[in-house]
Write a structure and sequence with these properties.
Elements: H1 28-31, H2 44-48, E1 78-87, E2 97-102, E3 127-131, E4 137-143, E5 148-150, E6 156-158, E7 162-167, E8 175-181, H3 191-194, H4 199-203, E9 206-209, E10 220-223, E11 226-228
Parallel strand pairs: 1-10, 1-11, 8-9
Antiparallel strand pairs: 1-4, 2-3, 2-7, 5-6, 7-8, 9-10
């Protein structure tokens, strides 16, 4: 008799995830652990909360073109970012909180410690949030972020990217990653990206150009599905889901 039901556990592939210390990614030296890791039991509050719902989301929270405006339009290439949050067996993950934050079209964050010479856009806050629907689908309107220099080597530039946070049913289930954009030549030159040993894993972090969802004369669309657990899971900055 053949077992046709999906397995409950997927073995972690340790060649898929980047090492904690990557010499060419300079700040990984201070961020990588020097002592053996400890497994901590979650408290009840971490397992059971917080509980998010659509009542916690304002109507334009997912519209970065309008949720911080001071009477004008944000500057830059208008884009749609959309996709689904699914599990390892392609089943939707409904009603989960998805948050994003990013630099503006010039490559500058709205943060007091960002001193890059690109100007701050007075009509762009750079962050948004939404809940997935019953099919695990999410949707944002924003501007395509610009590349920016960072102090890794003398002439290091981060590719255009958007940070993504996924919340489960508790604080201990928060996962954070960042997505890149199809066709960006800086992806292959980024030391953070180069720390990922498998080229297929890098592809999982690249949002694909989606002309079917593009709105003519308005916004170019990019599709980015987020897969939790399994061999094809999306890489996260803190850990692989379920491991």
């Amino acid at each position: 008799m053949t077992n046709r039901s999906p397995t409950e556990y997927y073995q972690r592939d340790r060649q898929w995830h980047p090492p904690a210390f990557a010499p060419d990614y300079k700040t990984s030296l201070s961020r990588s652990p020097r002592m053996p890791l400890l497994s901590l039991e979650n408290a009840l509050g971490e397992v059971t909360g917080p509980v998010f719902s659509h009542n916690d989301i304002a109507e334009i929270d997912n519209d970065l073109l309008n949720n911080f405006t001071h009477g004008g339009e944000p500057i830059g290439e208008r884009i749609i970012l959309h996709g689904r949050v699914i599990d390892e067996n392609a089943r939707p993950v409904p009603h989960t909180l998805v948050e994003i934050w990013q630099a503006n079209a010039g490559g500058r964050y709205r943060h007091k410690k960002d001193t890059y010479l690109a100007p701050i856009d007075p009509n762009f806050g750079g962050c948004g949030r939404t809940m997935t629907d019953a099919d695990g689908y999410y949707f944002f309107r924003t501007v395509k972020p610009g590349a920016y220099p960072w102090r890794n080597w003398i002439n290091s530039w981060r590719p255009a990217h958007i940070h993504v946070s996924i919340f489960g049913s508790g604080f201990a289930q928060r996962l954070i990653t960042q997505l890149y954009f199809e066709g960006d030549p800086l992806i292959a030159k980024c030391p953070i990206v180069q720390s990922i040993p498998d080229p297929e894993a890098v592809d999982q972090l690249i949002a694909a150009l989606d002309m079917n969802a593009t709105i003519p004369l308005d916004s170019i669309a990019y599709k980015f599905d987020i897969v939790l657990r399994g061999r094809r899971s999306t890489l996260f900055e803190n850990r692989l889901e379920g491991n």
